Records
---
Amino acid sequence: MKAGPKDLVKVIQNVIGKDPAQLHEPSFIGNEKEYLNKCIESTFVSSIGFYVEELEIELAKYTGSKYAILVCNGTSALHLSLRLLGIKENHEVVIPAITFIATANSVLYTGATPHFVDIETESLGIDPIKLRNWLLKIGVKNKKNELVNRKTGKKISAIIPVHVFGHPCKIKEIMKIGEEFNLPIVEDASESLGSFIERRHTGTFGKLGVISFNGNKIITSGGGGAILTDNEELAKRAKHLSTTAKRFHKWEFIHDEVGYNYRMPNLNAALALAQLENIEKFVSKKRKLYLRYKKAFETFENIRVLEEKKGCRSNYWLQTIFLDNVDFKYRDKFLSEAHNNNIFIRPVWNILSNLKPFINYPKSTLTNAIKVEKSTLNIPSSSFL
Ligand SMILES: *Cc1c(COP(=O)(O)O)cnc(C)c1O
């Protein structure tokens, strides 16, 4: 049987039994209020304090990363990561064509040029085969064994794979390509806290990994982010650069380079610490929600629910469905029918290289991205549903 827009609404209503339904709302079921009160009582509500230290320790423990450095959001974590790798003007960075705009913005903040490469349809991450072909096509090794763009002569400096909607991308294949071409990987794990590949947490494969604690993510600090790394030097530099590059001194203001005010306030860390204590509960509820959706959609031949790849544990942050063989007009009928019924569903992001700020940057053929853009929807995903 084929599902039409009304069927989609019915299925969602049957599964979640709630109307209206947002796409994603946070749940505060633990120590949030207690920690926030303690934080206020301590007067240390800003960038220094117990909860910042504690959350850095707990996040490192949970992800298995040696170091976790908290910052004020995921975007600044991406920007700082690229800065830590020395990326600037005259550099080029490869990213997937479909991701949240922050991935691309962070490249532009450094002055570097983004390249957009196609995604694969199993996980919606950057396609390793297309990535390798793209690097072979545009790149050539110089005498220092660095990869440079044969047209522009600029250095290709990093790859940023993204674990989309919490689903681990093909990071192992991508790591191999990074080694082959001598390129560091910054893993955008903004959406994948709680997602593992054979028990290794996403964001810990690359030289640097990025987490977001924005309000719509699986756990939140209000707004916030983190950098994960096993490299002590990078971790120290991340802390330093995020703290206006200020050297420690009891009273002098000595800043040894241009840094940023990117630290996460203690108040936000207090909220996120309480949230992190419940992350396994949230993941388990989201995994159950996925099973309920999967069962409910089984009768329809034209709708498929995105599921985790073998060997992975996805956090199922946003539930994702694919419509078969559709165009934008048909897709939009599903969107408007749902919105008319106060059910918030959303299409995947637009292909970034079609957006005004990025239209003139290089891109591979985007066969899969074009298909995915027209057919992919996120449906209500809060962990309490
Ligand atoms: C949320 C998100 C970010 C940025 O995080 P903020 O905390 O909102 O700045 C970056 N990349 C992806 C893929 C995201 O989903």
---
Amino acid sequence: MVRASVVLVAALLTSVFIAGSAKMMQPKNVMEKEIRLALLDEIQGENIKANLRVLTKEPHQAGTEANERVAKAIEDMYTAAGLQKVHTLTYDVLLSYPDWDQPNTVAIRNPSKGVDIFKSKGVTEPILPDEQGAPHAGHQWLAYSAPGIVEGDVVYAHSGTPTDFARLKEMGIDVTGKIAMMRYGQSFRGNKVAEAQAAGARAAILFSDPAEVAQGNRDDVYPKSIWMPPEGVQRGFIMNGHGDLLTPLYPAKPGAFKSKTAEEAKAEKILPSIPAVPISYTTAYEILSRMSGPTVFSDWQGGINVTYRLGPGLRDGLKTVVDVKSSLQNRHIHNVVGYIPGHDEEDRYVILGNHFDAWVYGSIDPNSGTAILAEVARAMVELTKTTSWKPARSIIFVAWDAEEYGLIGSTEFVEEFVQQLGGRAVAYINMDCFQGNFTLDANAVPSLIDVVIDVAKRIPNHVEEEVQAGRKTLYDTWIRTNPGPNGEPDIKPLVGGTDHVPFLTFAGVPTIDFRMENTTRKSYPLYHSLFETPFVNEHLYDKPDFAMHRSIGRYWAEIARTLADAPLLPFNVTRSAEEMHSNYVVELKKALAALPADPNLDEAEQQIKMLEKASEKFLYRAQHFSTHALLVKDDDRKLRGINERIMMTERCFLNPRGSPGASQNRHVLYSISDKDTYAGRVMAALYDAIDDYVANSDKKTSGRAVAEQISIIYHAVHCATNTLKPFL
Ligand SMILES: *[C@@H]1O[C@H](CO)[C@@H](O)[C@H](O)[C@H]1NC(C)=O
Ligand SMILES: *[C@@H]1O[C@H](CO)[C@@H](O)[C@H](O)[C@H]1NC(C)=O
Ligand SMILES: *[C@@H]1O[C@H](CO)[C@@H](O)[C@H](O)[C@H]1NC(C)=O
Ligand SMILES: *[C@@H]1O[C@H](CO)[C@@H](O)[C@H](O)[C@H]1NC(C)=O
């Protein structure tokens, strides 16, 4: 059925195009609509489903032979799809593994008798052995944990945020020498372990609380529903930073010099120096049900059926034992790359990416995305064969390796090609995984917000009830479930945690990152567990035709087509300027005004005035530029010049020195704060400087640091204004 309609459209297109390949001859509007419809039609749910099965046959952590087989499978998919110049890029990076023969455990010990009254198995048993039964699939571990055996007293530290540890301190509970037990959620797990270590803990235990992962009836969990079953465990990495640890700022090409050692990374607190282990809520029950000490603050109680206590320690003198075996290893990783060369501008890139390495089978994170991307590639190439359509700019498809270990594959790639990307990349569009089936959720830099919204309005809704309620497009459900200010969906410039981060923060390439999700903007319950196998996608989230997965593919493809084809890049620089002028600067002034009067902040006040003026000029210039740019039609040389100025305006926001203490975080507006790797706080380095000023007794130095951070943003805004002007 679907095939037939494609052929029809193809025939129509061929007749429209046959006149010649020169793009000026194409009746643009008619053509664009036909191409769009043909592209949407070409993307097939069944293909995504088949791809997913191929990619999730075995557990495939980065650096393993199994993951090399997945890389090869993707290469084959890209080649079969008809992408050109398909190849892999190899890097030699520091990874971490458990001891597959000796699982990590948590035990409860009676020290007087020298016996363990409870010991976790350290391995989750499969529920669907056909999909989950590979050797070692069930191992529970956290990558980059220090190895070690720690016997001691547990303290419950809630989510392990700085605020949580401060509250424990106020309660007079000393974490020094203890084992910090923390639940997942609220912050990145690596930050939790780092906070525990800083508070003096000798080990960390992380658990999934049913309050987050099993909200329904306890009998209604996986495989009956999407809620985490009793033995499910979230894996993940706990290093603080991204990219290969041993080659900061430079690509870890095999044989290349390693400028840092693992010991140095430990001393710098990038690598944790305490053992850490993840457990299920069933194992957490064994500990929490025996805890002594005061009951927790009411907002710290979780969903396990006992009254949570702070500790320290268990009743009756019982001790807790954390036993972690792990090792750091240098391994090869492989990014897979393929192209659809641009017809008019080969050296302008629209880059689409997702990672393929997984903690276990990865059917949601990340291979739902990998499977969709391969289908987007196939559909786009197919269109170039069945019609005379060719993207005007090159579209690059990339599958990243070792994202799960800290965005390593993408970071090394960006470090290797930072100059070329800086000059040639139009945008990077990431989709990590399909983690829910209800609504789109997209984040983007301000200049690309118009694109993410406009495209969402062109993609039919896949949720039947929504369509029946009159919400016919992805946009209609998105704006209803995730409304933000200004009558638009809530779109953040950058939320951390996946592969768009190095593109934006190191190379200044504008990014879009999106996903399909439930309405809550949270993770999904089975996240990083053994149970992420195709059954979840096929039976719990989607229908046999994979219509929901297809929807995401359609959105991705249409964004790519839009950015690759539009003669004038559809970036809205006025939006960037408006955001700066009416939002960031205003918020910054408020933050400074809230501080007590202090002459040590005079310089900062002066810099704010400079920034305010500069942002007014930027706004004026952007409006002028946009009006002018729209008048430039059908003059390729002029358009290319205008487009180049748009691209280079974005690059102005890179500070070549990076944020203090984090030279890879070069974007002055959208770098991720090391204080919380998941959060996307705008102007993080500046707000970190303000926090330091508040906390620091040396007000003179810390006040000057605030002024300096403001001045860096001022220079960036001034640069953007100058870039929009044709003359200096
Ligand atoms: C609480 O949960 C545990 C573990 O699931 C179970 O063994 C126990 O019987 C439950 N206790 C009550 C009072 O429901
Ligand atoms: C989304 O999640 C909420 C809360 O977890 C749940 O009540 C709701 O049914 C979910 N919606 C869909 C469409 O799955
Ligand atoms: C969407 O996912 C929810 C689980 O969150 C599931 O209950 C529902 O059936 C799914 N919808 C479809 C159409 O498969
Ligand atoms: C660009 O954004 C501004 C500010 O949000 C808006 O007023 C304007 O209409 C947008 N321009 C285009 C061409 O959509």
